[in-house]
Specification:
This protein is α/β, with parallel strands linked by helices. Helix content is about 30%, strand content about 25%. It has a 7-stranded mixed β-sheet with strand order 2-1-5-4-3-6-7. The longest helix has 12 residues. The protein is globular. It is an enzyme of class 1 (oxidoreductase). Belongs to the peroxiredoxin family. BCP/PrxQ subfamily. It holds the Pfam family AhpC-TSA.
Amino acid sequence: MGLQVGDTLPHFIAVDSHGNPFDSKHYDGKALVIYFYPKDDTRVCTVQACSFRDQYEDFKALGAEVIGVSSDSAKSHQKFASKYRLPFLLLSDSDKKLRKLFGVPNDLFGLLPGRVTYVIDKKGIVQLVFNSMSGKIHIQKALQMLKTM
């Protein structure tokens, strides 16, 4: 079933694009936009990441941190972030534990990992779960939700 609106963000640890451990507890008290995407440096994923990048200051102004998650390695994330000047963290989920923890489904045909965005408020409560293989609309939906929080 996965995380739903009203659920509490579960604690998790992952590796970021710099090879450092990421602990979700370090973000307690901060709004988060966590988006899962299929693969680094593919057309739709790149458009989505660059859209988050281009509006990153809007997210920061609303008090939120953006975090991207895919099954790519930390090294792949580092290249992707550097190539497109991504100012936010990318987390490696090579063992797919985060996907399972959040309940991110595969696409309709089961071939690609799903594309889902979660907006979590400062109290750690999920306020939005948006599932769509269209990349750019995730940014709009997340910003709309943050503006109402």
